[in-house]
Amino acid sequence: MGSPEGAVSVVFMFPGQGSQFVGMGREVYDSSPAARRVFHEVDETLGRHLSRIIFQGPEEALTSTCNAQLALMTVSVALVRALEENLGGPIKDAVKYVLGHSVGEHTALHVSGVIGLPDIAKLLDIRGKAMHRASSLCCGGMAALIGGSLGEVEAIAARASEYGICEVANDNCTGQVVVSGAESALQQLPKLIEGTGVKKVIKLRVSGPFHSSFMRLACSEISDFIDQLEMNRPAVEMVFNVSASTHSDCGEIRDLMVRQVVSRVRWRESIEYLVGCGCSEFIEVGPGQVLVGLLRRIDNSVRGLSVDSMESIRTNCSGVLRSEKLAASNSG
C-alpha cells in the first residue's frame, strides 16, 4: 500500500457543511473554463441557478441544507477541475486517496470516479431536501464538546440521553467531538460536563441533528435513489466516514452511503488510517481550512495544504502533484 520510492502519498480532503460562504468559488469560476463548466452543469442538472446563490446569496439561502450541501460539492469539484487543467491531466495520476467530511464524502465519490456529476448533484438535491424535512419534524441540533476524550463524550451523551436522544455525530479529533440530539438533551450538556475533561460546549449553527437516528426519516428516500444510481469502482482509493477504511465494491459503497446519513463521521480514525498507510501530504480542496486545522490536531507530523483559489492551486498544490505524477509514471 506504500508509494514508489521518492514519492509521497497525496490525499485530497473535501470539507462539509459549515465551510460555505457567499462568494466562494467566484475567482475560480472567472479564471478557469473547466471550473466554469462544473457550475453550469450543476445549474443545468438542477434546473435552477444554484451558482447565483453561491456567488450572490443571500446567506440564509446558501446556508439552508437544501443549498449548502450542493454548493460545497460544486465549488470543491470546480477547484479539482481547475487543478487538473493546471496539472495537464487527471488527479488520479497523482492522488493516492480521497475522503470527505460528512457531505464532503459526496464530492469524494464523484472525484474518485464512483458517480458522475449530474447524478451526484441529483443525489445531494434529494438528500438535502430529505434531511431538511426530517429536521423540521424534530426539535434537535448539534453541539461541539471541546476537550476530553471520545470515551468521556460518549459517557456524557449517554447521560444526556435520559432527557432525549443524544448521540456522537462527528469524532473530529482528540478534544473536539460533536454530538447530535434533541434540544432537551443538548440543554443538559453544560451541567453534565462538570467534573470531566470536557471544558466547554459550543452549540453549532446547523439546521438539524445530522448523523443521528433522527435522520432515519430521510433514509428510505435517499436509499431508493442510491439503488438506481449507475456506479463504478473507485479510480482513486476512497476512505469512508462510516468505516474509516477503504471500499471498492459498489454494493458495499451503496450501503455505506445510506448508513452515513444516520452514522458517526469517524474523521479522526480515517486520518489515522491514512497516516498508517504512509500518507504524508493532505490537501483540503474547497472553501475554508477546517480540515487542515483538524489534521494538525490529529497528527502534526504530516503536512496539510489548502486549495481554495487559483493562486493556491499554483503555489500550494501543483508542485506536489507533478512530483507524485512523475514518480507514479516512473514506477509504472
From TrEMBL:
It catalyses: holo-[ACP] + malonyl-CoA = malonyl-[ACP] + CoA. GO terms for cellular component: cytosol; fatty acid synthase complex. Residues 13-325 form the Malonyl-CoA:ACP transacylase (MAT) domain. It is an enzyme of class 2 (transferase). The keyword Transferase applies. The active site is at S102, H211. It holds the Pfam family Acyl_transf_1. GO terms for molecular function: [acyl-carrier-protein] S-malonyltransferase activity; fatty acid synthase activity. It comes from the Bacteria. GO terms for biological process: fatty acid biosynthetic process. Belongs to the fabD family. This is Malonyl CoA-acyl carrier protein transacylase. It comes from Anaplasma ovis str. Haibei. The gene is fabD.
